[in-house]
Design a protein that fits this description.
two-stranded antiparallel sheet, 8 helices, about 260 residues
């Protein structure tokens, strides 16, 4: 009985794959979800029948199946049998065939990340505790790394950075503004925006004279009595003349002449 081992992916396979037209499918979302969701990764590990019998003196470096897989040997270091190595090769080839260019794939990964147990912390007050969120998400990512040998190792520091900085940022943005900062902002608003830098604040009922806003509630200053003298009897007045209107010396301007 002949045994056919999976063949390694060659540079020709990669070039032919690049020449193929891009195709998007809703099934790509399921692929993304399976790659990210802890539930899906755990279920796949349980149903994968990965309990391979151990072979005595098995060394992956001497396995003929791994010819051409020199750059991927880190995936096989813990393999304990040729059957397990063969299963890892199939996973690696399936991993290479995943449509990572598809937007549906990344949508599935986002959904998988949001539905993870650690993400549920953000729906409670516990999501504002950086140490708790960081420990939960990092532990969850380490579990994923152990369950899925194809998972990218660089996700560990990425998840650690996000889980520790995001709660701090949320706490900073949601914290009440200090009184001193509020006072400083109010003074700057009154000085620059409200117009106190040059004049009183401009209101909707203000009027403008020669481009300068004038408050209509502000009264004009009292005219000076300098130059106004008591007119002799029989004097003829014209419109605009200043005259004394009482014994206290107050003056006024003639605006209307009534003919008798």
């Amino acid at each position: 009985m002949a045994i056919f081992f999976p063949q390694p992916i060659t540079s020709l396979d990669i070039s032919e794959k690049k020449e193929e037209p891009l195709k998007y499918s809703l099934t790509d979302a399921w692929d993304g979800f399976k790659d990210e969701s802890l539930y899906a990764i755990t279920a796949e590990k349980i149903l994968d029948n990965s309990d391979f019998p151990e072979e005595n003196n098995y060394n992956p470096s001497n396995d003929p199946q791994l010819k051409g897989y020199k750059d991927y040997m880190h995936h096989f270091y813990f393999s304990k049998s040729s059957a397990e190595t063969s299963a890892i090769i199939k996973k690696l080839q399936a991993h290479e065939d995943t449509a990572y260019h598809s937007p549906w794939y990344y949508l599935g990964r986002i959904v998988g990340a949001v539905t993870d147990p650690s993400s549920l912390l953000f729906m409670t007050k516990l999501g504002k505790i950086p140490k708790l969120v960081g420990a939960s998400m990092i532990s969850e990512e380490i579990i994923k790394q152990n369950l899925d040998p194809m998972r990218d190792d660089t996700l560990v520091p990425t998840v650690a950075a996000f889980s520790l900085t995001y709660p701090l940022l949320i706490n900073k943005l949601s914290a009440p503004t200090p009184i001193k900062t509020q006072r400083t902002l109010k003074e700057a608003d009154d000085y620059w925006i409200a117009g106190k830098k040059d004049q009183q604040p401009i209101k909707t009922d203000d009027i403008a004279v020669d481009g300068t806003f004038v408050n209509p509630n502000k009264t004009d200053p009292t005219p000076s009595t300098v130059g106004a003298a008591k007119a002799p009897s029989g004097t003829i007045f014209n419109k605009g003349d200043k005259v004394i209107i009482n014994n206290k010396g107050d003056t006024g301007t003639i605006v209307l002449i009534k003919l008798i």
